[in-house]
Design a protein that fits this description.
With 147 residues, this protein is an all-alpha fold. 69% of the residues lie in helices and 0% in strands. It folds into two domains: 30 residues; 107 residues, no CATH class. α2 crosses α6 and α4 crosses α6.
């Protein structure tokens, strides 16, 4: 019984070590490189009106990949999320770059698509006060019991 437990323990230790190595390899490939983060963090974030983020006629094709990242950061700033949640500029830049890095280079569900969806939601939340619209609409909803 003791030999069996020792073998099981050694097996668990070996599998844990393999898991840690796999996690380190995956983390390396998932997280944006430090030099990219520093480069983006040092670039001034353009104003939302200059980027036309509030516009329904927004066109991401006019932006470079770096400008899409900076535009995403600008949306966070416009929503006042860095102050509300005490998120540093460097952390937001690293997070957006990491999200961008994890999108595959496919035709449709790629970084550009995600960026367009984010910009559309940003416009809905800010331009038409969508969250207030939803609250007004849901106040009078009465749910019936499931039959």
């Amino acid at each position: 019984m003791g030999i069996h437990n020792t073998r099981q323990y050694e097996n668990v230790v070996r599998l844990t070590a393999k898991q840690n190595v796999a996690f380190e390899v995956l983390s390396y490939h998932v997280i944006a490189p430090e030099d990219d983060c520093q480069r983006i963090a040092q670039i001034g974030v353009p104003e939302a009106n200059k980027l036309r983020l509030y516009s329904w006629e927004f066109n991401d094709m006019l932006l470079t990949d770096d400008e899409t990242v900076l535009s995403s950061v600008r949306m966070f700033i416009e929503l006042d999320l860095p102050r509300k949640f005490r998120i540093s500029h460097d952390v937001i830049c690293r997070w957006v770059l990491s999200v961008k890095k994890n999108y595959r280079p496919v035709i449709y569900h790629n970084w550009r698509h995600a960026f367009n969806v984010a910009q559309t939601m940003f416009s809905m939340l800010t331009v038409i006060d969508f969250h207030l619209f939803c609250l007004r609409k849901t106040k009078n909803i009465r749910f019936r019991p499931v039959e």
